Amino acid sequence: DEAKQIAARIGYPLLVRPSYVLGGRAMFVCWEESELGAMMTKAVAASPEHPVLLDRFLEAAYELDVDALCDGKRVVIGAVMEHIEQAGVHSGDSSCVIPPYSPGVKKHVAEVVEITKTLALALKVKGLINVQFAIHDDTVYVLEVNPRASRTVPFVSKAVGVQLAKVATRLMLGYTLDQLGLHELPPGDAFFIKGPVFPFTKFPGEDPLLGPEMKSTGEVMGVGATFGEAFLKAMWGAGVSLPRAGRVFLSVQDRDKPELLPVAIGLKDLGFELCATAGTARFLAQHELSVETIYKVNEGRPHVVDQMLSGEIVMVINTPLGQPSYYDEKSIRLTALQRRIPLITTLPGAASAVEAIRSLLGGDLSCRTLQEVHG
User: Fold this and answer.
1) Spatial separation of the C-alpha atoms in residues 323 and 329, rounded to whole Å
2) Cβ(238)–Cβ(196) under 8 Å?
3) Which residues is 83 bridged to in the sheet?
4) 222 phi/psi in degrees, rounded to 5
5) In a 10 Å sphere around its CB, with 0-12 CB exposed, 13-18 middle and 19+ buried, how is residue 344 labelled?
6) How far is CA 223 from the centre of its chain?
7) pLDDT of residue 302
8) What stretches of 19-65 show up as alpha helix (H) in DSSP?
9) In 3-state terms, what secondary structure has residue 189?
10) For residue range 136-180, what is the model confidence (pLDDT) as tens digits?
């Protein structure tokens, strides 16, 4: 009852999170009151001795990470990383790119850097600091400040060619950035993408849908002259082989449909055939995009899972449609895992995959060692 009162005051969507858990366990994005009871029950069970926190969730927000070094008097930015998935996917499960590539993010980079420096100096940090940001409606929000090393430090170190952990240790021992000869790091001439590695194939029945709860167990890095090339290599490193041709299945919730349109057009331009559930196909048809309508599992046969099992579908783009369609969606996602069909559950991830396939078909791929990248 207390949660419902708070939710009515804050408004939906909400982020529901237990106070003391690791990896976002039992953390949920709640879109409407009908979901709140079940989510509160799980959150309370995860940390029963402590309060459950309710926050306003910034829908369709960009998320960024910044790793920086500070000696108490001066700050050097390691890197500003843009998450490819929007806010709401755990940072450990989100692919991220150096440098930021979206116009809506690039214009705020200077502000993000200035905020990071201000926070590091105010907190009297000596060593590493990680700050997580969201950008929503052209406003920069600070989500979290960690005066410590983060999981992104090894990735950033390889991308910028500086061993951040070694420098941070010396700062903690009393050296200054000036004594270590470290000044502003020059921008690189490549894109670096960190891609998560998921264990879903080892856990039959585990739903691969991404959200605030972390599910990845490792990560890889892709390096390329273009964003698409770097993302393609990151997907390869994570064990995902993107298709060169064939039929792609599309099924997304209503609020994702406008963002799906450029993805569908991009796939058509690359020569792919498209099939979709009725609602998604109807939306695309309204925008003069011809798409074959395909049955859901409970609508008749042959349905989408039949076509996946027969090898007719080469990639799946599916964002959650809510509780009424949960069984259909879960069977689609699990079949994709079992048959090793590339499965993408976020629209930014789908748009990135289109760029990666464009690089794959263009054939203009290069291979450089990190020593060559950093001279």
Assistant:
1) 10
2) yes
3) 96
4) -115, 140
5) buried
6) 17
7) 84
8) 33-46
9) coil
10) 999 999 999 999 999 999 999 999 999 999 999 999 999 999 999
